[in-house]
């Protein structure tokens, strides 16, 4: 009689291993390092870590959020400190002109912020490959959204490199109504330059506008600016005396330069008098243009009064044609005047 074949023993089913949610690696490392030094601090960290939630395989707790905030603040402080140190260091380099120093500051600032961002990504353990799915759409959105920002950034760097615009220059600006005025460049930022006018109004002009539009820079190659002041005198004035008095008035104003020398030009014979124009030069346009013109004209008025030179009033000559109606009008006016006499 044959014996039945033995039935092989069934192996127990493999145990299902469930992986616990992984906390943020850097938070876990920092927790272990701090806990090994102080038991009290370890208890506080454990209590903070107990409050949290899990997303997929990553656990977020109050402790991990606190670590992220501390890392971001530390990197932000590092970037700000690096930017200030760069500004102070370039400020002591006298071999460079203001535009070169400002360009160096901007480049170092960009490099410091770039390093801070990369270090922050590494410390927080952010996996950039997880964003690969969204990189195309995200990059496209960033490209459209920051197109003007990057354009202004590159335009500002180019302006500093070719030294066409630098802090302290005096340029002409126009407001929204088209009224043109002038102002001094206070600073050149990443996005725009700051221009302060004589009215203490501050214009923020995008760097890109200075690249594509015409800019009138009064102090690009030289700070000397010519100012014109028109003056009229009566026809019975001595032209030579008038020219001498105009030059004397110009030289007596402190801000007027002796070289290039001021000039007086006879511009034409007007309806009421002779038209002259005084042309003189100044080297500090940021101090004002209208005020220096006013000072010269006030001194001209004083010298004209002292030397008997008159400024003409508007004059008109009327020519009346003689005819019958005109004679009747004269006769009627004469008859009305006789009873009053």
Oligomerization state: single chain
Please trace the helix and strand order, writing H or E for each element: EHHEEHHHHEEEEHEHEEHH
Mean pLDDT: 75
Tell me the overall shape: elongated
End-to-end C-alpha gap: 176 Å
- List segments where confidence is low: pLDDT < 50 over at least 5 consecutive residues: 9-23
What does this structure look like?
- This protein is of the alpha+beta class.
- Among the domains are: 22-127, no CATH class; 164-212, Roll (SH3 type barrels); 225-307, Alpha-Beta Plaits (2-Layer Sandwich).
- Helices cover 48% and strands 18% of the residues.
- The chain has helices at residues 25-35, 39-50, 62-91, 98-124, 132-145, 147-162, 207-212, 239-251, 290-307, 324-340, and strands spanning 22-23, 52-55, 58-61, 170-174, 180-188, 192-197, 202-206, 225-233, 263-269, 274-282.
- The strands form three sheets. Strands 4-5-6-7 form a four-stranded antiparallel β-sheet. The protein has a three-stranded mixed β-sheet with strand order 1-3-2.
- Helix 1 (25-35) packs antiparallel against helix 2 (39-50).
- Mean pLDDT is 75; it is low at 9-23.
Which keywords apply here?
single chain, 341 residues, alpha+beta, SH3 type barrels, Alpha-Beta Plaits, four-stranded antiparallel sheet, three-stranded mixed sheet, 10 helices
Topology:
Elements: E1 22-23, H1 25-35, H2 39-50, E2 52-55, E3 58-61, H3 62-91, H4 98-124, H5 132-145, H6 147-162, E4 170-174, E5 180-188, E6 192-197, E7 202-206, H7 207-212, E8 225-233, H8 239-251, E9 263-269, E10 274-282, H9 290-307, H10 324-340
Parallel strand pairs: 1-3
Antiparallel strand pairs: 2-3, 4-5, 5-6, 6-7, 8-10, 9-10
Helix pairs in contact: 1-2, 1-3, 3-4, 8-9
